[in-house]
Amino acid sequence: MVRKKTGRDNAAREQVSFKEAIEAMVMAEEKCYVYLNGKPMGNVEDGKGFAQEVRKNRRLGLVSGEINVVYKK
Questions:
Q1: What DSSP string describes 35-72?
Q2: Which of 22, 44, 54, 55 sits at 20 to 30 Å (Cα–Cα) from 34?
Q3: For residue 65, what are the CA distances in angstroms to 3, 28, 41, 55?
Q4: Contact at 8 Å (CB) between 43 and 31?
Q5: Secondary element (H or E) of residue 7
């Protein structure tokens, strides 16, 4: 078993099987991370599509023209 921390309280932990931990790591590797001003905001499954959507919304004026997006595979 692998223990997963669930919040600030070190005493509160959830038990996760080794298989579940490996599957979670693989799923995370397949996602693209999203940062705003250098801070991690989350991740998306389709990084290329996300970048295209941000660019489209920027051109339409729906998001600030100051927002930049980079997609690296």
A1: EETTEEEEEES-HHHHHHHHHHHHHTTSS-TT------
A2: 22
A3: 43, 30, 19, 9
A4: yes
A5: none
- Tokens for 42, please give them: 């989350």
CB atoms within 10 A of CB 28: 10
Check: pTM over 0.70? Answer yes or no.
Answer: no
Q: Which amino acid is at 41?
A: M
Domain ranges of the chain: 1-30, 31-73
Per-residue pLDDT for the chain (73 aa), expressed as one digit of tens each? 434 445 555 555 566 676 666 666 656 667 888 888 788 888 888 889 999 999 999 999 998 888 888 887 7
